[in-house]
């Protein structure tokens, strides 16, 4: 079975968030089930730097404003088809934002090209390659199902995966004439959305199957509280909407072999985490000590609940805790965190930006990983935390609800608790959860049992890859054996 994954980012070539982690890990997980997945990705500078040995498999005289080539290559364990279109993608830095921090004004063109090329590949553009399923990820690939729906072939099947419904790809109506779609595609059952063009809306409307990245989030987005305007559409399509939990690359995230750690360890040698904690404290300018160290590796945004943490920070320190924050985002939140560092020297540390190696050290050295999101489609941070014996403290939303078992009395008595949940996602509930976490930390045997239990949690792609394989097989009318 040939599947083409269509994505605007893929780890480790280009990454701004969890989307890249998912699209980077899924091909290998599916290969174990006999599914060949290639990845179509824009030719950003970071991507082109990795494909020096690639071969040109197609050329375009005019791809949304200029000539372009398709380059097939294998890099970082991925089978890639790269769109080499300098007029669209040869730009430094973030793949979506210009130097002023705003969206590139031609993002509509850049990602329409991505979707259009995917459709052409499924039509047989490259000799010897014709994917049967196009798997589109997020709004940047949202036009893929629309190009298929309004195209010449009814044999191509499409899957639309929503990683975060808050990012929708909405543009003005003036771009429609440049997309290469027939006039009747500009309708409520096509790409039209509030008198403009909606890329994610097009995908949700036109795809054969819609998936999102956790069962709870699949239910949440069919409600007004979480649907971001799409709840009606998704509720009407509920029979074709499902939630499949993300997994993580358990080879890249393995505390027993991770070169980013000062000391590697397993569930049976978890005491070695203390070495990582000391190194982490030094990196963040924190005082050495054995009090509870809370970690955050997040985009600093309202959605992620960073303001809730800031509201509870003085209490956390007063109760004997420390906080290490790695991330960047909202300027006001960054300013508030810097003020907290000055207010609590040696107790609060903040490093702006993102560093992959340091993020591993936070997981391997912090005692608690805080994920207080107001909404979270799946979340990978808490999965890494479980894998590394770092107790996750999470809001009871989306995939956080599906992956962390709250340490309530019943769960502790049954021996199944792996973390701490709180609801609703507000400062009062978070403060209570911090106090519960501190109380658990003061019970060393209970704490170690939770750590070891988390490290044994199933966080790989094994089960989820099986779900995707089943969806592909059903779309193609093939028999699928979950045990294959």
Automatic annotation (TrEMBL):
The chain positions of domain Starch synthase catalytic read 3-235
Please name the SUPFAM superfamilies in this protein's record. UDP-Glycosyltransferase/glycogen phosphorylase
Annotated Pfam families = Glyco_transf_5 (PF08323), Glycos_transf_1 (PF00534)
Which CDD domains does UniProt cross-reference here? GT5_Glycogen_synthase_DULL1-like
Q: Which InterPro entries match?
A: Glyco_trans_1, GS/SS, Starch_synth_cat_dom
Record key words, sorted: Glycogen biosynthesis, Glycosyltransferase, Transferase
**Cellular-component GO terms for this entry:** cytosol
Q: Which GO terms describe its molecular function?
A: alpha-1,4-glucan glucosyltransferase (ADP-glucose donor) activity; alpha-1,4-glucan glucosyltransferase (UDP-glucose donor) activity
Q: What class of enzyme is it?
A: transferase
In which pathway is this protein known to take part? Glycan biosynthesis; glycogen biosynthesis
Which annotated residues bind ADP-alpha-D-glucose? 15
Swiss-Prot/TrEMBL catalytic activity:
[(1->4)-alpha-D-glucosyl](n) + ADP-alpha-D-glucose = [(1->4)-alpha-D-glucosyl](n+1) + ADP + H(+)
What domain of life does the UniProt record list for this protein's source? Answer: Bacteria
Q: Which GO terms describe its biological process?
A: glycogen biosynthetic process
User: Which residue numbers delimit the Glycosyl transferase family domain?
Assistant: 287-450
Q: Does the keyword Transport apply?
A: no
The EC number(s) this enzyme carries: 2.4.1.21
Per the record, the similarity remark reads: Belongs to the glycosyltransferase 1 family. Bacterial/plant glycogen synthase subfamily.
Sorted alphabetically, which HAMAP family does this protein's record hold? Glycogen_synth (MF_00484)
Q: What functional role does this protein have?
A: Synthesizes alpha-1,4-glucan chains using ADP-glucose.
Q: What is this protein called?
A: Glycogen synthase
Q: Which organism is it from?
A: Devosia geojensis
* Native organism taxonomy: Bacteria, Pseudomonadati, Pseudomonadota, Alphaproteobacteria, Hyphomicrobiales
- Identify the gene encoding this protein: glgA
């Amino acid at each position: 079975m040939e599947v083409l994954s269509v994505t605007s980012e893929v780890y480790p070539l280009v990454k701004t968030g969890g989307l890249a982690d998912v699209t980077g890990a899924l091909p290998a997980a599916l290969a174990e089930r006999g599914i060949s997945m290639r990845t179509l990705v824009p030719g950003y500078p970071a991507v082109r730097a990795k494909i020096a040995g690639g071969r040109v498999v197609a050329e375009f005289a005019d791809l949304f404003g200029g000539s372009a080539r398709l380059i097939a290559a294998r890099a970082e364990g991925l089978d890639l088809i790269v769109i080499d279109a300098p007029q669209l993608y040869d730009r430094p830095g973030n793949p979506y934002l210009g130097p002023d921090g705003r969206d590139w004004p031609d993002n509509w063109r850049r990602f329409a090209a991505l979707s259009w090329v995917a459709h052409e590949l499924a039509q047989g553009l490259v000799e010897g390659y014709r994917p049967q399923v196009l798997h589109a990820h997020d709004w940047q690939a949202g036009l893929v199902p629309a190009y298929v729906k309004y195209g010449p072939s009814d044999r191509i099947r499409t899957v639309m995966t929503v990683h975060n419904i808050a990012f929708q790809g909405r543009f003005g109506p003036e771009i429609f004439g440049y997309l290469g779609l027939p006039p009747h595609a500009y309708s409520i059952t096509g790409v039209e959305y509030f008198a403009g063009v909606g890329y994610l809306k097009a995908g949700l409307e036109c795809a054969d199957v819609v998936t999102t990245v956790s069962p709870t989030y699949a239910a949440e987005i069919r409600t007004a509280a979480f649907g971001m305007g799409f709840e009606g559409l998704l509720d009407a399509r509920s029979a074709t909407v499902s939630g499949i939990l993300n997994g993580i690359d358990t080879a890249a995230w393995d505390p027993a072999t991770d070169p980013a750690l000062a000391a590697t360890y397993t569930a049976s040698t978890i005491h070695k985490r203390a070495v990582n904690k000391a190194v982490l404290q030094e990196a963040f300018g924190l005082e050495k000590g054995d009090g509870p160290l809370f970690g955050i590796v997040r985009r600093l945004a309202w959605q992620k609940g960073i303001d809730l943490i800031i509201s509870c920070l003085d209490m956390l320190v007063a109760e004997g805790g420390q906080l290490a924050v790695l991330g960047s985002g909202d300027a006001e939140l960054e300013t508030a965190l810097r003020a907290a560092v000055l207010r609590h020297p040696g107790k609060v540390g903040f490093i702006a930006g993102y560093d992959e190696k340091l993020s591993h050290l936070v997981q391997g050295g912090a005692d608690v990983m805080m994920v207080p999101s107001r909404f979270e489609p799946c979340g990978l941070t808490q999965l890494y935390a479980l894998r590394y014996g770092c107790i996750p403290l999470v809001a009871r939303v989306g995939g956080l609800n599906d992956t962390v078992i709250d340490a309530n009395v019943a769960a502790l008595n049954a021996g199944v608790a792996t973390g701490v949940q709180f609801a609703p996602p507000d400062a009062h509930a978070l403060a209570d959860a911090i106090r519960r976490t501190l109380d658990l930390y003061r019970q060393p045997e209970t704490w170690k049992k939770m750590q070891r239990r988390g490290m044994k949690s199933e966080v790989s792609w094994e089960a989820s890859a099986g779900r995707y394989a089943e969806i592909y097989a059903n779309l193609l009318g093939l028999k699928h054996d979950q045990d294959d």
